[in-house]
Amino acid sequence: MAESRTVAFHTLGCKLNFSETSSLSRILENEGFAKKEFDDIADVYVINTCSVTDNADKECRQIVRRIQRKAPESLVVITGCYAQLKPKEISEIPGVDLVLGAAEKFNIAQHIRELVKGDSAKICSCDINEVTGFHSSWSLNDRTRTFLKVQEGCDYTCSFCTIPMARGKSRSDVISNVVKNAGELAAGGVKEIVLTGVNLGDFGKGSEGAGTTTSISGREENFFELIKELDKVEGIQRYRISSIEPNLLTNEIIEFVANSDKFMPHFHIPLQSGSNKILGMMRRRYKRELYAERVALIKTVMPHCAIGVDVIVGFPGETDEDFKETFDFLHSLDIAYLHVFTYSERDNTHALSLKPVVPANLRHERNKTLRNLSYMKMQYFIGQHVGQTRKVLFEGHNKNDMMEGYSDNYIRISTSYRKEWANEVVEWKI
């Protein structure tokens, strides 16, 4: 039966989810499933969900309803963070056949083989503390850029976050396996690897059990050791570090990137608030002064480096003065862009008990203010590089006779489509 079955995927959320969806796709293709576009009719639909984006349940229900209307006899499988956090709630959505928690999503082929349409929804989940394994994952939408998962889970207890409850304790791949995967990707023509994880700077925790570390020749592996080894892999021209906590971004990592030809001058460093009061209420592991030091060092050794910042607005207790402190702090930093998130309540998080609650309309106003600041920061950053020649890796997609690529320092470039430039690094005058 499996040889003739088809499967389609839909991914919500982060780069980690996209890398894992690609791995789930390869697992099922190896079992004989033919991959289809999500808008096509397929025998099985897999939705990889998120717990960070707003309205996770609403979005999931809408997608399931769409499937029900176009393909009522097809099987619907829900996995991802939302599936781990609220499996019973998801199982009660009309049309859902299977809910796979964090421990079972990579056993998807076995579970689908046992599914029968019309039975009540099956839940395959467990307590998140029992999830200790690590599964390598990478995305392969095209050869230009691949998201490679090297770390999973988080041991931090930020008061707004459900990720530790959805993905479990921090654990990692081993350096030798990451290097092997990078080599295989290079052999397949991949030019750029984006290293991804939940808490990437915490790389080194082992997969044998929560809290263990991987030891090589009597020493623990860490993120700095990882990037040094990856820098030696033949064939990969570029690496990017997807996101790294400021307290884990060490001087040696910054200085290594500054001196590397392969690691791009581009960091994405979560801040979340420019107010030390709010950072404390968020249970973040640093103060704004450390963040400012990280940015200053990066710009000293790499003046051309792009720095992106995550920030949350409307956190409980955030007054007008706190928000102004955040705005002024961000305005003062030599950064390139912001990813702005509007705080939204999450079940079973400490932040739910914090007061006063910021009204929704005020949260949205603050979001808009920071998005405007982000636009101005990006325009200023690009303006600093006008006239410079930088290396741009162009993607292969032909969009209305146009193609896009990113410079080493993350400036997006659009130009007329030229087939010979696809998946090639081109010297480009900004």
Please give a quick description of this structure.
The chain has 430 residues and is α/β, with parallel strands linked by helices. The chain has helices at 15-30, 56-70, 81-85, 87-91, 108-113, 163-167, 175-187, 223-230, 251-259, 276-282, 288-301, 320-332, 360-385; strands at 6-11, 34-36, 44-49, 75-80, 98-100, 122-124, 137-138, 145-149, 151-152, 171-172, 192-196, 215-216, 219-220, 238-241, 266-272, 306-313, 337-342, 389-394, 402-407, 412-416, 425-429.
Descriptive overview:
With 430 residues, the chain is an alpha/beta fold. The chain has three domains: 2-126, 3-Layer(aba) Sandwich (Rossmann fold), CATH 3.40.50.2300; 137-381, pyruvate-formate lyase- activating enzyme; 389-429. The chain contains 13 helices and 21 strands. The protein has helices spanning 15-30, 56-70, 81-85, 87-91, 108-113, 163-167, 175-187, 223-230, 251-259, 276-282, 288-301, 320-332, 360-385; strands spanning 6-11, 34-36, 44-49, 75-80, 98-100, 122-124, 137-138, 145-149, 151-152, 171-172, 192-196, 215-216, 219-220, 238-241, 266-272, 306-313, 337-342, 389-394, 402-407, 412-416, 425-429. Strands 2-1-3-4-5-6 form a six-stranded parallel sheet, sandwiched between helices. The chain has a four-stranded mixed sheet with strand order 7-8-11-14, with helices on one face. Helix 7 packs parallel to helix 8 (223-230). The radius of gyration is 22 Å and the shape is globular.
